[in-house]
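Figure S7 source data.
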Amino acid sequence: MQVGKVDLGRGLVLAPMEAVTDLSFRTVCEEQGASITFTEFLSAEALTRGAEKAVSRMWPSYENRAFVVQIFGREPGSLAAAARMAEVAGASIVDINMGCPAKKVVSGMCGSALMREPELAATLVKSVRDALSAHIPVTVKHRLGWDECSINAPEFSLRMVDAGAAMITVHGRTRSQGFSGEAQLEPIAEVRHRLPKEIPLLGNGDVKTVEDYKRMKAATGCDGVMIGRGSRGNPWLFRSLLALEEGKVDPGEPTLEERRNVWRRHADLVQKNSPPRMVLHELRKTLAWYSRGIHGGANLRQLAFARPTPASLVELGETFFAKLAELGHDIHSLPVDPTQRSLERHGRRNGEIVEAQEICLS
Ligand SMILES: Cc1cc2nc3c(=O)[nH]c(=O)nc-3n(C[C@H](O)[C@H](O)[C@H](O)COP(=O)(O)O)c2cc1C
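Tokens for the predicted flavin mononucleotide complex:
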């Protein structure tokens, strides 16, 4: 799959996710087979003000791999300036967010609010297109429309393409849906039907398994698939999908050793890349992600709260995986007893460490 001159391989794309798709997680996904990754959305206003938090998030991928910087705003001049900053930072593609449903974004008439103002949205695309060098494509990610009564994704995407967009991503929900209900696939199919053939379309929404992926492709005819929540703690989804696309055998679930190695890789990247004040939080997140559904995971997550340094968190993770290896049987946990879960939640709220009766790490 190509967007302009940028190669998107098999079109297996990691979605932009605020506070999730930092360089560390993007790298892990790329190493498991993601064709390209997006930064989280960055405010054009913040970028052009030089806000360190936004500027530092335009991290280029390692090894010169192509990556996408996503920006949002509603002022053509600042979007154009932000796009130029993304180009200087090395972005291969600049994407404009027209799908975010969050109050803090739509109250400023940005994100999905732009779907109610297609002419302004087209002006934004054009100003970003004009600001960038010709070899850097501009793309747009949007939803189905504002609400069920105003689904306009097919006309909207066409208008964005007329204004200069070289690829469209559609998340199959309206703004009113937020993240509730199920992603609708028929309107995405309608977008594919209406767009010129040479404009690639990414289908997005609720792809968490190989079966979901097959359904998205078959039902919409999309050229590639963007995956968000389904990749958190499961970057191996990309390797399964890559195997499928290449006609190879699905490697399936990771072995314990693979799981430990990817966790450790992620943890090492976090220590290298995350701002110092975020390292403990991000390391705890890696432990939570890679132990979800695994024997002893609940205990691990609780103990992690009490570990005060990066080294002690890494040591806790290593002990967890070493003890799992000693178990020598199925590492998946039994379905959680609702009473136990409620006790654990209650304990966490009160700042207590609840002893889970799974594997002993302490
Ligand atoms: C925590 C979180 C943060 C997100 N941040 C962004 C963002 O910065 N930009 C964006 O376009 N979409 C963002 N999204 C939406 C996702 O990119 C994606 O469209 C949505 O989650 C549906 O795909 P999924 O079902 O595969 O997760 C975010 C979603 C989540 C869950």
